[in-house]
Amino acid sequence: MALPNDAFMLLSVVNTKLRDNYDSLDALCDDLGEDKERIVSTLASIGFEYIEELNSFK
């Protein structure tokens, strides 16, 4: 499954996957073959950053 391009949809999908299936953003990206920097920069563009301790974008 490819991750959505829309930033708000991406936020929802990534946070759900982090909560339910992955213990880190690195693990999610490795498993799905996604570019971590694309995810981080896309979500930063709408004001969210990855909080490692929470394993979530806030």
List the helices and strands and how they pair.
Blueprint: H1 7-20, H2 25-32, H3 36-44, E1 50-51, E2 56-57
Antiparallel strand pairs: 1-2
Helix content: 40-55%
Average pLDDT, to the nearest integer?
Answer: 97
The N- to C-terminal Cα distance equals 23 Å
Question: So what's the overall shape?
Answer: globular
Q: What do you see in this structure?
A:
This protein has 58 residues and is mostly helical. Helices cover 53% and strands 7% of the residues. It has three helices and two strands. A hairpin with a 4-residue loop joins strand 1 and strand 2. It starts with 6 loop residues before the first helix and ends with a strand.
Question: How is this structure best summarized?
Answer:
The chain contains three helices and two strands, in the order αααββ. The protein has 58 residues and is mainly α. The protein has a two-stranded antiparallel ribbon.
Please describe the structure with a list of short key phrases separated by commas or semicolons.
single chain; 58 residues; mainly alpha; two-stranded antiparallel ribbon; 3 helices
